Amino acid sequence: MQEIAVIEDPAAAEASLDPIRTSILRELARPGSATQLAVRVGLPRQKVNYHLKALERHGLVELVEERRKGNVTERVLQATAASYLISPSALASISPDPHRFSDRFSAFWLLALAGRMVREVGKLIAGAAAARQKLATFAIDGEITFRTAADRAAFAEELGVEVTRLVDKYHDDGSPHGRRHRLVVALHPVLKETNAPKATTESTPGKEQD
Fold first, then answer.
1. For the residues of 82-129, what is the DSSP string, one character each?
2. Which residue, 72, 119, 140, 160, has fewest beta-carbon neighbours within 10 Å?
3. For the chain, which domains are there?
4. pLDDT over 70 (residue 64)
5. pLDDT at 208 (0 to 100)
6. CA angle in degrees (0–180, nearest 5) for 86-9-130
């Protein structure tokens, strides 16, 4: 089982987005038969079998083993990945294209770059798995709090200068055995967490609170 599988086929993407099939994929993180799944998801076995066939047809689940029980052969299946990510390739001609515009301060360009990264890394992972090779990647993820918008702008400017310096230092376009790599640097606000309002305890007139 892969850790993450990137779905590129539109039909497979559609199949994975069905709420029942999503729940089946979640349950099949560990192997199970249609009978076992029917109990887990609370559906008739025949209906579970119908959805399993669709998921298997699109390569989202795979056969682990077949067990003989009397005159019946029980098929045990498992999801092909622990989690799934739908590639912009599934949207074909309407997926975002970073080459259409280039503005380092545009959130839309950032989304287009992120979409391209999902598409390209997904294909690279599939190719590396088929060749039984490791894929060399590197990522940094962190958070930084800026005192002011001016500080944020200054940080972005310095970061750009430093990245350009490193690219100039290590880039060798004339190397016959060199391998091109994609470099994407992103900075965006962190989503604010929405916390439910805390319940307040109101005092009853004439009665003390504990």
1. EEEEE-GGGGGGGS--GGG---TT-HHHHHHHHHHHHHHHHHHHHHHH
2. 140
3. 2-84 (1.10.10.10), 87-170 (no CATH)
4. yes
5. 44
6. 90
